[in-house]
Amino acid sequence: MVSSVYIHIPFCQQICHYCDFTKFFYREEMADEYMEALENEIASYIDHPKQKVKTIFVGGGTPTAINNQQLKQLLEIIDTYFDVSSCEEYCFEANPGDLDETKIKLLKDYGVSRISMGVQVFDNQMLEELGRLHRIEDVYKNVDALVQHGLTNISIDLIYALPKQTLSHFERTLKEALQFDLPHYSAYSLQIEPKTVFYQRYKMGQLHKPQEEEEAAMFELLREQMNKHGKQQYEISNFAVPGFESKHNLTYWNNDYYFGFGAGAHGYLPGKRIVNLRPFPAYVKQAMKDGRPVLHIEEIGKKEQMEEEMFLGLRKLQGVSKTTFQQKFGLEMENIYGEAITFLTQKGWLEETTDRIKLTEEGSLFGNSVFQEFLLDDEELKLTD
Questions:
Q1: What does the pLDDT average to over 193-201?
Q2: How much is the pLDDT for 385?
Q3: Helix 101-109 and helix 136-148, axial crossing angle in degrees, nearest 10
Q4: Residue 161: which pLDDT band, with cuts at 50, 70 and 90?
Q5: CA–CA–CA angle 92, 25, 20 (5° rounding)
Q6: Helix ranges restricted to H, the chain
Q7: Which of 157, 289, 174, 299 shows the shortest CA–CA distance to 228?
Q8: Segment among 22-26, 38-42, 104-108, 110-114 with least mean pLDDT
């Protein structure tokens, strides 16, 4: 069963300097076209109204950048094709400053249960340098308004290891973020991605990230402060009051299936990963033609499934279950990955229990190096045949 739905709304009032997601400057007429194309795509996959799903996540771009009428139209499309009332989590991304009373009321009335706010940093000068439109006061206004309307399941996203950011500066951002005492926080180190403003500056020597040692110290501070304030780390970059973990993101980390709708969206269905067209004209044209605006379909065999089970599962603090692995693939984890597990355990990066393997605290600092050990070569592949 496909348990989750991701819907991409690619419009932004301003393009952030670090963002490499599919995004376009918002224009009303473009958004009108997009809504029609998006519904056509959804209808081509969902053959009956009110399909039951576990989670729905509307991301971007900036879903709240569209106008009130378009937001209502989007919410009605989702309500038509999916059984929102039985959904365990229905989440919208939002930028601080976008959420006026009308939009908040619409989200609440149509069953949205969780808001993920892209705050990034509590420093107005740094927000400007990131290309963000909002300011600190907008965060306070929007959180207050959401709570007043009963939308209390709020998450804040932060970015650390920013240009010019020091450990003490990040500590101030953490302190202010935690004053809200929200049920969920995400914090990611800055990644300089191609085709972004930051990448161009980096290539010209005009942008400098903090040293690796300082970035690691920021991560340690993050874990320490979140734990101190009762937000338990359940994934490398995510912290929550128990019971408020992101159910939708756990779909990804548990390597479960999900639909991906919208320009540049990725979907994961049994045996295949579907990647949609990114350019606006191409997406709209193909979605209106046959409802399948697909750039390419990647076949996912047992090898890739097992690798992803390890890569994604090890991001979670509870790690990967050996029992679940055997149930999914009909193979003992030790028979496939015994050598890698022994090597990483001896290195102090992995911890093994009777039924699980998981990253140690030190191992979480070297995640990419750990994940690389779970790539299967041709000899190991023979065991999966």
A1: 88
A2: 52
A3: 40
A4: very high
A5: 70
A6: 28-45, 68-81, 101-109, 124-129, 136-148, 167-178, 197-203, 212-228, 247-253, 280-290, 302-313, 322-329, 333-347, 367-372, 378-381
A7: 174
A8: 22-26
Predicted confidence band of residue 381 (pLDDT cuts 50, 70, 90)? low
Q: Give every CB contact of residue 9 below 8 A, 6+ residues apart in sequence.
A: 34, 58, 59, 60, 61, 62, 63, 65, 66, 74, 262
Integer CA distances (angstroms), 65 to 93, 133, 142, 279, in order: 10, 11, 14, 19
What is the rounded distance in angstroms from the CA atom of residue 222 to the CA atom of residue 196? Answer: 26
User: All domains of the chain, ordered by start, with CATH?
Assistant: 4-253 (3.20.20.70), 318-384 (1.10.10)
Q: Is residue 161 a contact partner of residue 187, using CB atoms and an 8 Å limit?
A: no
What whole-number distance in Å separates Cα of residue 354 and Cα of residue 238?
A: 25
Q: Tell me the C-alpha distance between 81 and 43, whole Å.
A: 8
In the block, residue with structure tokens 């699980």: 356
Strand order across the 114-120 sheet: 232-235, 238-240, 184-189, 154-160, 114-120, 89-94, 55-60, 4-9, 258-261, 266-269, 272-276, 294-299
Question: What distance in Å separates the CA atoms of residue 123 and residue 168, rounded to the nearest whole number?
Answer: 13
Structure token pair of residue 275: 């990647």
**For residues 239 and 171, what is the distance between their CA atoms, to the nearest angstrom?**
16
| DSSP helix/strand/coil, 332 | coil
CB atoms under 10 Å from CB of 307, counted, come to: 18
ω before 264 within 30° of 0 (cis)?
no
Q: Are strands 11-12 and 258-261 parallel, antiparallel or unpaired?
A: unpaired
Q: How many CB atoms neighbour CB 128 within 10 A?
A: 11
Please report which residue ranges of 181-237 form alpha helices under DSSP H. Answer: 197-203, 212-228
Residue 382 has pLDDT above 70, yes or no: no
State residue 384's pLDDT score.
52
Cα 36 from chain centre: 25
pLDDT for res 365? 85
Summarize the confidence of residues 60-74 as an average pLDDT: 96
The answer to whether residue 373 scores a pLDDT higher than 80 is yes
